TrEMBL record:
Adaptor protein complex 2 (AP-2) is a heterotetramer composed of two large adaptins (alpha-type subunit AP2A1 or AP2A2 and beta-type subunit AP2B1), a medium adaptin (mu-type subunit AP2M1) and a small adaptin (sigma-type subunit AP2S1). Keywords: Coated pit, Endocytosis, Membrane, Protein transport, Transport. Belongs to the adaptor complexes large subunit family. Residues 546-577, 621-644 are annotated as: Disordered. This is AP-2 complex subunit alpha. SMART domains: Alpha_adaptinC2. It is a peripheral membrane protein. It comes from the Eukaryota. Residues 652-761 form the Clathrin adaptor alpha/beta/gamma-adaptin appendage Ig-like subdomain domain. One of its GO terms (molecular function) is clathrin adaptor activity. GO terms for cellular component: AP-2 adaptor complex. It is found in: Membrane, Coated pit. Component of the adaptor protein complex 2 (AP-2). Adaptor protein complexes function in protein transport via transport vesicles in different membrane traffic pathways. Adaptor protein complexes are vesicle coat components and appear to be involved in cargo selection and vesicle formation. AP-2 is involved in clathrin-dependent endocytosis in which cargo proteins are incorporated into vesicles surrounded by clathrin (clathrin-coated vesicles, CCVs) which are destined for fusion with the early endosome.
Amino acid sequence: MPAVSKGDGMRGLAVFISDIRNCKSKEAEIKRINKELANIRSKFKGDKALDGYSKKKYVCKLLFIFLLGHDIDFGHMEAVNLLSSNKYTEKQIGYLFISVLVNSNSELIRLINNAIKNDLSSRNPTFMCLALHCIANVGSREMAEAFAGEIPRILVAGDTMDSVKQSAALCLLRLYKASPDLVLMGEWTSRVVHLLNDQHMGVVTAAISLITCLSSKNPDEFKTCVSLAVSRLSRVCVCIVSSASTDLQDYTYYFVPAPWLSCKLLRLLQCYPPPEDGAVKGRLVECLETILNKAQEPPKSKKVQHSNAKNAILFEGRNNFQISKWGHWPTKFGNPWCNLCSFLSQVLKVAILAEKYAVDYSWYVDTILNLIRIAGDYVSEEVWYRVIQIVINRDDVQGYAAKTVFEALQAPACHENMVKVGGYILGEFGNLIAGDPRSSPLVQFNLLHSKFHLCSVPTRALLLSAYIKFINLFPETKATIQEVLRSDSQIRNSDVELQQRAVEYLKLSSIASTDVLATVLEEMPPFPERESSILAKLKKKKGPGAVSVELEDGKERGELNGGGDRGGDAAIAASNASTPSPSADLLGLRSAAPVSGAAPSAGSLLVDVFSEAGPAATSAGVNDDGFLSSAPPTAASEDPAPPLPESDELLNKFVCKNNGVLFENQLLQIGIKSEYRQNLGRMYLFYGNKTSVQFVSFNTTVSCPGELQSHILQLEPLVEGGAQVQQVINIECLTDFIDAPLLNIKFRYGGALQNISLKLPVTINKFFQPTEMAAADFFQRWKQLSQPQQEAQKIFKASHGMDTEVLKAKLLGLGTALLENVDPNPENYVCAGVIQTKAQQVGCLLRLEPNAQAQMYRLTLRSSKDTVSQRVCDLLAEQF
């Protein structure tokens, strides 16, 4: 909206805008707008002698109402009438209304064209600029037909003001892009090219944009621009070398003279081969070497704007030295800026090396996010797809990834690829950092939504999906997000994908129950671990064989092929062994030794439960839509067996992790993947038949202590030989508990009943929500929990070494937040978290003090409930 000054005197407009801003609800806003629309309509219809000021005021109100997202179906003719006014403010509002609201196919275009023609011939520079801006904004073919011949004449006329020339060049560029067949330069070509010698930098900059576009389509017609562009670039370089930027004082940006002009000139020269004239070519080489030399000098400012402007010129200069055009590259290629350029062109290989040689996946996430931040434009879709895949598949890095992208999104300038990664990860795992007030649900949403209007349509679609996921993760954000989805800019969006998502997500969030919403919007399942997508991308470029990654010294360091190690979590391929092996691992995750004692079996066919491939990979109990069927199980008459002797040992292995092999013998392998959110948990159990014979009457039951509730989806009673079936178990924590749920599996193999009972790895720490705390807050809370019954302490010997990274991984796996720079002793570890149960929340603080010399630990845990302190302390002590 144009600024409303005191001179305008449009008090009615100011009052109307104030009324709208003071509305307490959407309904109140609509009521006030409808009242104003009725008043304006009556004024336009009833008062035939309405003066220009009144028309301007009412048209401005209509424009404001339209920008709020409401449809306007009248007032167009009054806006057209304002174009004939001799007052600038009235004409300006008329052109603004026309540019925003009038469709390029409107019947009013002819009337508008007549008004524009009058303003272009008036020789009033202000009116001419308004008319040219309107042509460029509307850009219709009818306008191109009317003014494509007139605008070049205005552009090259000797008496045209500089501001009008600048507007004319950009207007002509807009028309050429919209209707290139109608913009024929012909006799104006040489005079347009000579605008490169104009004294006004704004005219030169606008003219370069026009000439670059024209010469890319008709290079021979504009080839005379090369010598003039080199001459102009040389004059800029003189200012760069001598720092005598007096000629470019108004165009110096953070100590860099005319960076936009330099970049445009270099880009124009890239449309042509090296100059044939030796003198011109020599001057161009001097200019490029000047740019390279200046890049090596210490920066004159530490501001990022200075380095950005400097690097922008460097990159364009580097592009002018492409081998296809020059045949040589100066020895100065070795300077650090050029090494950066080389690095940017090798982003794909950098991403692959980061994955292959990752020390841990936290480091990998940091590396790829830095890559996106530094070289966002060069990061292909495959790179950010891969980081998402790795985060989804590894729950030990999910909280760290959520925290890292949340911090990255807070940068003022954030690349769109970073927004994509941030939207995806926060939509899936934002709950892992929501305990910190600095990253509360609404803070996360507002941060993401602040990037929305800056993104392309595909990214906006991804963000809308993240928003609906937020409603499931954080019910308190529902009203805020529904308001966004309900806005006219979404449900009336011109892009059908965005409109459809907004309408469907709004309806889903309004009518679906909490359980349905949780089912539809549950976390993404793990991706099948096959070949890395970025490795496949590079293979496609270099051929189907092994891919070698070249480093800066030109040598090869390692071969990457389809079977390469990608972090130790690759799936076990199908095996053709004729007998089952005790070491066979259906999940590709080895965490427990097989239990012997079962009858030997015949043939075996092993496949990965995370893979979609392989014979009999899906049991009859899985429907086409991916849900498990709930057919009633075949009951066995025998009572459940007592828990296996090794149940407690198996349970302890899962205190700090959620995935792995829970149980295995010669017949059966049971894998588990679990996830927890507040007081709710969901387990995915994978039952693998390691034999070639059917399991008959396959039935499972779960017995929970009174403090827990469970719901189990039953399986089909037949499990084919070599097949895996998946079962989902939902767990709800009502209050703190001691005993784990008991899983009983019964089935018949070769007529003999198999009856197995073991403890499900559900421990109290699974319901931890990590909580970030500053040092002062931590110790204040620590002192508050000073009652003897609130503290549990244990001193014990380290039985698994004292590796720092292993310690951190286990503390994070416990479910708490690992707090940095809190304890005065940097060797100590402190953590904080809240155990979420349906009945209450139990805050817990933890302090682990290693004694490397004695190979001992002292573990102190304080919580608001004494039984919880002792239980968590005992659980964690077993891990070290």
